[in-house]
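Annotated sample (chain length 400).
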Amino acid sequence: MSFSCSTLLIVSCFFFSTVLISSRADDDHGSASVSYNVDSFKSGIEAKRNFVMFFAPWCGHCKNLAPTWNELAKIYNKVDDSPVTIAKVDCTEETSLCADHEVTGFPTLKLFEKGGKSFKRYSGKRDLEALKNFVQENVLGLEKEAESEDAAAEEKADALVVLTDDNFEATVATGAFFIKFFAPWCGHCKKLAPTWDELAETFASHKQVSVAKIDCTRSTVICKQYEVRGYPTLLWFQDGNKIAKYQGSRTHDALKDYVVTMLESAAKKDEPEEKTIDETKKDPEEDAQGEVKDLTEENFKSFLSSRLVFVKFFAPWCGHCQRLAPTWEELAGKVKDEDVTIAKVDCTQHKSVCDAHQVRGYPTLKMFRNGEFVADYKGSRTLDDLQQFVSRNLGARDEL
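Output written by the structure step:
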């Protein structure tokens, strides 16, 4: 058998057109949802529940649904412990698979139980809210008894503020809020729920802070805005601004201590600084030794310009910073007769200074000489080790 050049050209054109159409079809129908073929469909269904869109790339209704389907996939496919996979099957490529599942029109949407022995066909509206509600009712509803217990516990705490996309900005605009970003199906969220209720009750009569929650499966706009990637995410807000992410233990005592620390920090920031007449006139260059010096955006560069300075960059709510504080004061006393200054910068108040010196965590300890960065301190935070680091840098100066 022989082929003419024109025949080979037609075959080549057909092959490349098919590849191009396939690639465009996947692009058109979103990258967040999982694309199945015969083999991956079987393994995917065996692993967990799947909500599957059977489609054809040329189908207008499929194209209209594609962006919404992709948004649904972003909600469920990009988080740990998701109870469902949002997937798709191109029926122009997987014809036998679509035939096996009696797909006769496009798009066909089916929710398969784990193992694939049963499914429920979706025939409702094709907007995001309707699709989310379908998943909520049919996936989460299968664990209704356990879920209802958690819901009852959540609703029991009248002090717990419930936030949504609609009320979030107006509610958190004034005051302090400790907010739990969660998903109802998340196991870690379920474990935290009674503790979070207890925390809300603990601070129910406290006018300075509110303990709140927001369901990220329903309030997707806010959760996306604050880059919530996993559940639960616990964030501290002050007057509408995100201040910090809590990453400590999730016991009631640990959470309570964190709230108290954050409130104390905010209170100190609001207190007017009391100064005597002599103090207001004092030059920051004077009395440079014997105590920890508070550096600010205004005096940082000038203060460091002509001396050796060991600086602690910190945040008031940081537990490690709090533990280091008395040692840092003691260090200042120990070296008061040396030609070195022990200083500190509060990064919650002087963010630009900390950003300029690439402070990524707290506390960060840096040595400066005549305004120039010398070294980061990475050692133990005992008094002896810190004092030895200072002595080495004093010796290095003397050798110059």
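Annotation: Confidence is low (pLDDT under 50) at residues 1-26, 143-157, 273-289.
Annotation: The chain has 15 helices and 15 strands.
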